[in-house]
UniProtKB/TrEMBL annotation:
The keyword Transmembrane helix applies. InterPro entries: TrpP. Keywords: Membrane, Transmembrane, Transmembrane helix. Pfam families: TrpP. This is Tryptophan transporter TrpP. The chain crosses the membrane at residues 6-23, 35-57, 77-94, 101-127, 133-161.
C-alpha cells in the first residue's frame, strides 16, 4: 500500500464521518450513511483487496461508533465488511465499463441497498429492531432515501476527486485509466 493512497483513504473516511455527524436524523434518529459513499469512492479509486478490506473495517468501526441505532456497533462492522467485499468484486467484474460516473452511481445505489439490507438483517438477528419497527418499514423509511442521497452525493463528489487526482498525478487506478 502506498502512503499517498492511505492518506487519501483516511481523508475520504474522515469526510464521510464529518458528513454523517452533521446530517440531521429522521425517523427515530436514523441517518443516511455518507461514510458508505466515501467507502465506495475509495474502492473505486483503489481497487485492491487490501485497500478494500482496510476501508471496510475502518468505515464499519467508525459507523458503529457514531451509530444512533441501538446496538448498531457490530451490525455496522459486519455490514461494511460484507458490502465492501461484494462491491469490490462487482467493481472488478465490471472493470471493462471504465470509470464512468453513471455506472458508479448505479453501483453506489445497489451497494447502498446491499448495505442497508445487511445492516438491518444483522441488527434484527443480533439486537432486534428498535421500537418494534418492522424490517420493511425501516427499509422503506431509511434505506431507500439513503440510496438516492448516496447516489447524488457520489455524482457530486466523485468527479471532483477524480479531477483533483488527475491534476496532482496521484497514483491511483484513475490516473492510470
Amino acid at each position: 500500500m502506498n502512503t499517498k493512497n492511505l492518506v487519501l483513504m483516511a481523508l475520504l473516511v474522515g469526510v464521510g464521518a464529518a458528513l454523517y455527524l452533521i446530517i440531521p436524523g429522521y425517523g427515530e434518529g436514523m441517518k443516511p450513511d455518507f461514510m458508505l459513499t466515501m467507502m465506495f469512492i475509495g474502492i473505486l479509486l483503489f481497487p485492491t483487496f487490501k485497500e478494500t478490506f482496510l476501508l471496510a473495517i475502518t468505515t464499519g468501526v467508525l459507523s458503529g461508533l457514531f451509530s444512533t441505532f441501538p446496538g448498531g456497533f457490530v451490525p455496522n462492522i459486519i455490514d461494511k465488511l460484507v458490502t465492501g467485499i461484494v462491491f469490490f468484486v462487482i467493481v472488478l467484474a465490471l472493470r471493462q465499463l471504465g470509470q464512468k460516473v453513471a455506472v458508479g452511481a448505479v453501483l453506489v445505489g445497489l451497494g447502498t441497498i446491499l448495505s442497508g439490507t445487511t445492516f438491518l438483517s444483522m441488527a434484527l438477528l443480533l439486537v432486534g429492531l428498535p421500537g418494534g419497527a418492522a424490517f420493511s418499514f425501516l427499509f422503506m423509511a431509511v434505506v431507500l432515501p439513503a440510496v438516492g442521497l448516496n447516489a447524488v452525493t457520489f455524482i457530486i463528489i466523485y468527479p471532483i476527486i477524480t479531477n483533483l487526482l488527475k491534476r496532482s498525478k496521484f497514483s491511483t487506478s484513475i490516473s492510470q485509466a
